[in-house]
């Protein structure tokens, strides 16, 4: 059990730090009120986890340890639903309902599209 905690935790640490920096870089170069940074990391994270899912199904040597580090730890730390919902609440409180619908719609649609694309890409590699 301790080994599992270390594997997930180490992947989560790297994913969380990566999320912070990628989101910060994207957000600083976009609309001040639209949470493009979180949207971007969630789409990238969906693409990565779809790709890893496909690799894991295709390749039996993709060990449970690597799944824990990459899929549970890294992707779990890199993507963030709690930030997504809190940013939507802030947009609502600011009366920016167009951005609430745009952000929510893009996150869901592009997230599903990215996870599917990642899965498809894993099949051709």
Structural descriptors:
globular; 125 residues; single chain; mainly alpha
What is shown here, in short?
This protein is mostly helical.
| Radius of gyration computed on alpha carbons | 16 Å
Q: In total, how many domains does the architecture comprise?
A: 1
What's the order of the H and E elements? HHHHH
Structural class: mainly alpha
Low-confidence stretches: none
Number of strands: 0
Question: Which descriptor suits the 3D outline?
Answer: globular
In percent, how helical is the residue content? over 70%
Biggest beta sheet summary:
none
The DSSP helix count reads 5
What separation lies between the terminal Cα atoms?
33 Å
Chain-averaged pLDDT = 93
**Amount of beta strand:** under 5%
Describe this protein's structure.
With about 120 residues, the protein is an all-alpha fold. It has one domain. The protein is built from five helices and no strands. Helix 2 (about 35-60) runs antiparallel to helix 3, helix 2 (about 35-60) packs parallel to helix 5 (about 95-125) and helix 4 (about 80-95) runs antiparallel to helix 5.
């Amino acid at each position: 059990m301790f080994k599992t905690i270390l594997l997930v935790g180490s992947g989560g640490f790297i994913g969380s730090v990566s999320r912070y920096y990628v989101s910060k870089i994207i957000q600083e170069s976009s609309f001040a009120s639209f949470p493009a940074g979180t949207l971007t990391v969630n789409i990238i994270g969906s693409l990565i986890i779809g790709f890893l899912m496909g690799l894991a199904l295709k390749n039996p040597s993709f060990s449970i340890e690597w799944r824990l580090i990459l899929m549970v730890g890294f992707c779990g730390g890199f993507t963030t639903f709690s930030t997504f919902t809190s940013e939507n609440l802030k947009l609502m409180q600011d009366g920016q309902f167009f951005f609430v619908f745009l952000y929510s719609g893009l996150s869901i649609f592009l997230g599903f599209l990215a996870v599917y694309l990642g899965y498809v890409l894993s099949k051709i590699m």
